[in-house]
Write a structure and sequence with these properties.
By secondary structure, the protein is α/β, with parallel strands linked by helices. Helix content is about 20%, strand content about 35%. Bound molecules: flavin-adenine dinucleotide and 2-acetamido-2-deoxy-beta-D-glucopyranose. Its cofactor is FAD.
């Protein structure tokens, strides 16, 4: 067999790459090699602003995919080896397929806590799609420990009901991958549906990063020491989320005779009994195939790619979670393992391969100018733009916050009075403006704190 393009991986990066190739090179042979029979596709794609998109992920059967893309040949198999000298791949079932261009989109796997090797009660979770199925599986667990502080752990803590939950996080506030202590405070009531909502108060605050890092102090009375959050649930089995801050699991043991057979020991020495442990502590690049020449990898095993998504081996590209951006990146962009970026990289890798084939120069996609991600956390719309957590800025920046309890949380990150990043939670309608302010680096000093004054229509300023 042979093909002009072979794309490996049926995740968002691989599928978007194959679809984009099918669009630009409809006459060329394209093979998508997928280990799983379900193919992840993007649906309901909506452009919110120039850099922000919103979409859903849908898993479809390979037959459905083939119907939609007759010029992509889908092969259900696993890549075992790449002979980059003679330009062919070998699959697990010993198929040999020649390629001109190869794109590796093999993604990542959950990184479980080390004790998982000894206990089947420690579960990992692959994707948010599987969260609902996953929750059904653990339905009869009465006491659960969740480890990790990213989007997945947050989603689980929010969605699992009628179960006692112990959430173990190494940071001093929840959802640290995405948000700062202030937004975490905003989210806390979402874990507690029963709490009587206090009068919504709109507060506006301006901090130096110093104060912010000192955390609690500036944010009102000891919000982060409020460790126990009671959740709604069945009267008989109360659903509670108890957050254990700034700690990790140091030991796991099992006692089959106990009502809750698992016992974890935290680094603080505290012991917690439970039925299962969910490990949501991030992912690791998945590269379980061999190559003739060595691929250049990061120390975490990700495949290094240049600004054209090319690896160090000629004619081999990579995209999505398996790769690491090894170019001099734009000030307001950074890589984060997200669907958004898997899609952008997959599509851009396809354009680069097609450009390479046709000897056309391809300019780097605009999406790499600025980080932009739209998601949902604890039932709220969340938009993250630019250096939304002060990434790369050191300590020399200011933060402007406007928060209305239960309604919205807006954070602007400023350096030298220019907007560097923003967190927009709720229906703020500020995404377009924030994006423009970041991209154009407009001097905001004339407006002072009014930038977030809800009584002033800021957009009028910039008309
Ligand atoms: C639990 C969880 C929840 C998440 N939630 C969100 C979210 O809400 N929003 C968001 O933006 N991002 C989320 N992410 C991140 C997002 O899922 C990833 O960034 C994205 O799926 C990466 O896409 P990918 O195509 O690079 O890799 P993957 O989706 O991992 O796809 C890789 C594919 O390659 C296949 N493969 C691997 N090796 C081989 C081989 N040798 N031969 C053939 N096929 C192979 C795999 O089977 C897989 O189908 C979440 C991640 C996890 C783990
Ligand atoms: C990664 O970056 C280094 C330093 O710029 C460079 O020497 C190397 O060739 C790059 N590798 C790839 C695969 O782009």
């Amino acid at each position: 067999m042979e093909a002009v393009f072979i794309v490996v991986g049926g995740g968002i990066a691989g599928v978007t790459c194959a679809e984009t190739l099918a669009f630009f090179e409809p006459e060329k042979t394209i093979i998508l090699l997928s280990e799983s029979s379900l193919i992840k596709t993007v649906t309901n794609l909506l452009a919110i602003t120039r850099t922000l998109t919103k979409f859903d992920i849908k898993e479809v059967q390979s037959s459905e995919f083939s119907l939609k893309h007759p010029n992509v040949k889908l092969i259900h198999d696993t890549l075992a080896e790449v002979n980059d000298k003679e330009k062919y791949i070998i699959t697990k079932t010993n198929k040999i397929i020649k390629y001109e261009y190869l794109c590796l989109c093999t993604g990542a796997e959950p990184k479980l806590i080390p004790q998982s090797q000894d206990f089947e009660e420690i579960l990992g979770i692959r994707d948010t799609d599987s969260i609902d199925t996953f929750i059904k599986k653990i339905n009869n667990a009465k006491k659960i420990v969740i480890v990790g502080n990213g989007g997945i752990a947050s989603e689980l803590a929010y969605k699992i009901k009628n179960t006692e939950i112990h959430w173990v996080i190494k940071d001093r506030h929840i959802s640290a991958t995405f948000v700062d202590p202030g937004a975490a405070e905003f989210f806390l009531p979402s874990l507690n549906k029963d709490e009587i909502q206090k009068e919504p108060v709109s507060k506006r605050m301006r901090y130096q990063e110093e104060d912010f890092k000192k955390s609690g102090a500036a944010l009102g009375p000891d919000w982060y020491t409020n460790l126990i959050i009671r959740g709604a649930g069945d009267i008989n089995i109360p659903s509670t989320v108890k957050i254990h801050y700034e700690t990790e699991i140091s030991d796991v043991s099992r006692d089959k005779k106990s009502e809750h057979p698992m016992e974890i020991t935290l680094s603080t020495g505290e012991k917690i009994k439970c039925d299962i442990i969910i490990s949501a502590t991030g992912v690791m690049a998945k590269k379980l195939f061999k190559t003739k020449s060595d691929l250049e990898l990061t120390n975490l095993g990700e495949i290094q790619v240049n600004e054209h998504m090319e690896t160090n081996i000629p004619y081999i590209y990579a995209a999505g979670d398996v790769c690491s951006a090894n170019w001099s990146i734009a000030k307001h962009w950074f890589q984060m393992k997200l669907w958004t970026q898997a899609r952008q990289m997959g599509s851009y890798a396809a354009k680069c391969m097609a450009g390479h084939l046709n000897k056309e120069e391809v300019l780097q996609d605009f999406c790499f100018e600025m980080f932009a991600h739209s998601t949902k956390l604890f039932g709220h719309k969340v938009i993250l733009l630019g250096l939304f957590n002060g990434q790369k800025l050191g300590t020399n920046y200011e933060i402007l916050i406007r928060m209305t309890k239960g309604h919205e949380y807006i954070k602007f990150v400023l350096e030298n009075n220019k907007l560097q990043g923003a967190v927009l939670i709720g229906d703020t309608d500020l995404e377009e403006m924030a994006e423009n302010l970041i991209l154009n680096q407009i001097d905001l000093s004339p407006y002072g704190d009014d930038i977030l004054n809800p009584d002033i229509d800021i957009e009028d300023y910039f008309d």
